[in-house]
Each structure stands twice: as structure tokens, then as C-alpha cells.
Amino acid sequence: MQRYPWEQGVCAQALYEAGLDELWIPMAYDAVKRMSEDGRLAMIGGDIAVSDPAAAGEVCLRAFEKTNDSFFREGAERMLKYLQEKAPRTSDGIICHNMISFSEGFSPYQLWIDGVYMVPPFLAVMGRIDDALEQVRGYIRHLYDEEAHLFLHIVDTLDGRFVRKVHWATGNGWAMLGLARIIEEAKRVGREDICDELTKILNEVLTAMLEKQLPDGRFSDVIDDPGSFVDGTSAMMTAAVIYRGNVGGYVRCGIEFADRAFETVSRKIDDIGIIHEVCGCPDFVTQGTSAEAQAAYIMAFAWKKRCTIA
Fold it and tell me: Which of 36, 111, 122, 159 has the maximal Cβ count within 10 Å?
């Protein structure tokens, strides 16, 4: 499947989490080979992405740890340097999603909830755990709906206007996947303060999501709009978080919610392995297929196996 920076990153990360070294290490290699001059990984399809390239950052670090090849380490370090020194930021220091606005009348200083997955987990594994926390806090300030306990999709931070003021299911899935990875890294380095803070917000979002879960385990594309199409990507993202959170001990719900979703989405896979009835590329406003749906399913599968063994 064609891969833009976030697609290359999430697919490689999924294969890393599944332990398929022969697949994710070559993807990390190509992410570095396709690095832009300023340090952004996996840059195909234009020169507008700011946060998405960081989705491929952790696999470059892990590839270095596996191979001891400095090629991978340098790729991860250049990505980190771009984020720290070159990436455009909001007035309160949060890394923007793109260099342009796709919507007329809005500035480029936008935060998309997808970014919680792209940047903060990479910062965390690169030893910048406090920076990761500050980025997440920025997303909470700008996009968290305290009443619904869900994240909104896109805000223009220049004037606080929302570009897309909906509780997008896949966006909340991205956020939960990102939070889970940071929690685990914080736990690994003994930062229980960060674990506690992010575990609270993760479980708030997860609980709100599950209250809107459809009988077959999936979600409406806009979580609280039953008129929107049914989406399987967010269901697999949520399932992956539930399985890994149960393994890690930081998720407070049972795996039956994940099992129901996994069984349903498994029935939507065709003979060549493509998952259908998900939020579809290239515009993600209709039902279709996508690389992130494939990745989320692999993540859910990998963590379901570990959850069963545990």
C-alpha cells in the first residue's frame, strides 16, 4: 500500500510491535533513505508534513539497537534535531501538524489530534520524556473536550477557531495509541509521575469511547454522530490499546470490548488481506481502506496474543 510519512511510520511500528524484524527494519531503512535535507523521515508526497515524519522515528532507533548500524541512529537523531530546532510551533511551543492549511481562511498553525501519536512517543524514546509530556499537555489544552472526555480533531491555534470540531473516532484512536507508548516508556525510565498523569487521561478517553461502542465493537466515524459511517480503524486502535494496556497494567477495562471489535473487523478482511469498512484514504471522509487500518489490526493482533499469554 502507498505510504506517506505517517503511513510508513505506523506500518513499520506495527510490524516492530509484532516482532517481524525482516519487515520493519527495511521500512526503517527506506524512511532514512527518503529523509528530506532538513531531517524529516519518509518524505514522499510533498514537503508540507511536520509531525507525521516523526512516526517513523522509533523504528529507526530500534533498528540501530538491532543492527548497531549508525545509519539508523543518525536518521533518528536528525529527525529529533528537526523537531527541536526547525519544526514550526504554536505560540505555546507545540509542534504544528503541517506547514500549510488545507482549509481556506485558516493559518498553518494547526494542531491535529493525530499528532499525539506522531511526535510525543518518539520524543519519549529518544530520552526527551519531559518534552513529550509538554507536547501532550499542549494537545490537551487545545483539543481536549472536558465535557465529553474526548479529543476534537483540528484547531487553528492562531485564533482558537476549530477547523474541524468533531470527536473523530480515528483521531481519538491515534491519541490513545500515542499515550500508551509514552506511558510505557515513562514506566521504563521510572517516571511514575508521568505514568499517573497520562494514564488518567488515557482511561478517560477510553471510557468515553467505549460508552459509544456499537454492538459489533466498532464506532461511528464521528463518535457521537450515529449518522456517520461505521469505522473499523478506530476499533482496532482501541483494541490494541486495551490489549497492551491490560498487559502493562494501566488500562482499567476488560478485554471483552477489544475481542468484540477484533472479531468483527476480522470478518471484513478480503482474500488478499485488505481490511474494508474503515475510514478510507485518501481523504478519510468516507468508508474505504487505509494503511493505518492494516497497521492497527496488526497491532491489535500482536498485543492480543501477548494478552492471552499473560
Answer: 122
Identify the bridge partners of residue 247 per DSSP, sorted by sequence position: none
pLDDT digits over 229-279, tens only?
999 999 999 999 999 999 999 998 999 999 999 999 999 999 999 999 999
Cα dihedral sign for 208, 209, 210, 213? Answer: positive
Place of cell 491555534: 157
Distance CA(270)–CA(293), nearest Å, equals: 13
Q: Using one digit for the tens of pLDDT, what is the confidence trace for 157-169?
A: 999 999 999 999 9
Question: pTM of the prediction?
Answer: 0.97
Residue 156 burial (C-beta neighbours within 10 Å; 0-12, 13-18, 19+) = buried
Helix orientation angle between 169-188 and 192-211, rounded to the nearest 10 degrees: 160
Give just the sign of the alpha carbon dihedral 243, 117, 83, 136.
Answer: negative
